[in-house]
Amino acid sequence: MLGSGFYTGYIPFASGTFGSLAALAIYLIPGFEKLFIIIPSILIITFWGKFIADKFEIVYGKDPKECTIDEIAGMWISLLFLPKQIYITGITFFIWRLLDIIKPFPARQSENLKGGTGIMADDIISGIYTAIIMNLFYALFGTMLFFS
Prior knowledge:
Layout: H1 15-27, H2 35-60, H3 69-78, H4 86-102, H5 107-110, H6 115-146
Helix pairs in contact: 1-3, 2-3, 2-6, 3-6, 4-6
């Protein structure tokens, strides 16, 4: 259940997007954004996800679409340190999906890592890029765009 992002990996189209939406639904639980909750959750999902993804790869082949635990980790990383506001969360979701699809360097190259490490690494890298972009965007323009 967890490896497939609450079964989103079995949706026949856009399983990564649905896995990211599942992560977003969990993030929307009140208090989940608190650093003492989200950071340990990311660490647990990332560590456990590597081993779960190893098993998915044995059953379904290289970087299977059925495995969406990596989207959960990447989505949560993307939202780190941002205020929990609908506009910011929505923009973050779209940038995260874009970067997860484009896979900027070294995300695409990290897919070549063996097993679950490769499955998790590209999403973690794209999540870090998204978090940097969104935190810079918010620091520079956040109060002008969202509070005026």
